[in-house]
Amino acid sequence: MSTRLEQDAEHDNPVLILMISNGAGHIRTSQGIAAALRAAQPSLPVLIADVADYMTPLARFTHVTAYLWLVKHAPAAWDRIDRYQKRQTHTSPEWFYRRGCRGLFKLAGRVRPRALVATEVGCCEIAALIKRDLGTDVPLVAVNNEYDADRAWVQPEVDLYCLVSEQCGAELVRAGAPRERVRAWGAPLAEGFDLPREREEERAAVCRWLALDLQKPLVLIAGGGEGMGRIEEATACLLRLRQPAPQLVVLAGRNERLRSRCERLATNGDGARLRVLGWTGPEQMPRLMHAADLLVSKLGSTFNEAVAAGLPIVAMEPPPGSERVQYRLLDEWQIGCAVRTLDEVVEAVARLLAHPQELGALRERARARRLPDAAPRVASWLGQAVSRRRSGGEPAVGSS
């Protein structure tokens, strides 16, 4: 991603957005902020940099490969690591980031960004180091789309914290973040979730696109960008449902093996009810979510997108980490069903599809929770902060 964008923006002192592609969430957050910046100020150059592209092999192993392996195969070990890490002032030593991401530091020195945005805690630490090493006072916005907060988000170089909830903001304040720099604006989402859509129009368009029956219920099954979770098993179980018999759209992400296995499930005569897609970009995800009746998925960024689309969620208990908070919120906010087994997934889907009033109530409560303007608010604040810095003033932290 970052290579193409560098060619467009690297000579223009861009707004530099740092993300890491260890899942879809940070990618879509970055894309949403970039789109909002371009919409608000078309002349403002924007550069999204995937930190993983600039890591040494060792740094990439520790921060991407090992992380994904632990979450998938050793959740108990990851739980201990995650709980320890959340209490630390740094996720990795400063020297490790400087050496392990030296290509990124060279990029920053070359493009001399006029502002920085970090969409992940390690990226925030790196952005703070970039400000410090370059000796620059450009605005730095830290965007945390998760429902808990690592202490390491708190860096003196950060000018504004954008968080999903007041509770998450209070955690950062207790960890040392200046209260006046903390804003609970919600989750910046990919372009397409920020505007209201007519559900029937989207449903008709999706059914034409995927050759599905407009009159039958539509269930999305998703495992995030990496296709994680018991996607294949859930798909097989839901294909056995007959009353009602939902149409299923599986989103396998970058997991080509999962995509192939799910496609083979259609060979038993249920092919007319099953569609399997790979990586789904920001152009199609809002359309799919607005069209669907129900989502069976892992949580993470998908949780925020589903809330924005008013789409009820059925989710099994996630691995340790911030998704556990979202899992609890499904029942607390009454926007979905938090289940523990595949049998409970099937029971929840069958019950909700058979009781449209209950499903509609979940949908309305999800819509009531949506905060669709987080990305535009971040973009507005950045635009004003950049203008003030150019004119010799300080950014007004509480603006926008």
Distance between the termini: 30 Å
- Number-wise, the strands total 12
**What sort of overall outline do the alpha carbons produce when their principal axes are compared?**
globular
Average pLDDT reading: 89
What is the ordering of alpha helices and beta strands?
HEHEHHHHEHEEHEHEHEHEHEHEHEHHH
State the domain count.
2
CATH topology of the largest domain: Rossmann fold
Structural class by sheet pairing and helices: alpha/beta
Radius of gyration: 21 Å
| The top level CATH class name of the largest domain | Alpha Beta
Main sheet: strands, sense, barrel: 6 strands, parallel
**Helical proportion, percent range:** 40-55%
| Uncertain runs | 1-8
Q: Write the CATH homologous superfamily of the largest domain.
A: Glycogen Phosphorylase B
What portion of residues belong to β-strands?
A: 5-15%
Across the major sheet, the strand order is 2-1-3-4-5-6
The number of helical segments is: 17
CATH architecture of the largest domain: 3-Layer(aba) Sandwich
Task: Write structural notes for this entry.
With 400 residues, the protein is of the alpha/beta class. It is 48% helix and 13% strand. The protein has a 6-stranded parallel sheet, sandwiched between helices. A 6-stranded parallel sheet has the order 9-8-7-10-11-12, with helices on both faces. Helix 7 links the parallel strand 3 and strand 4 (140-144).
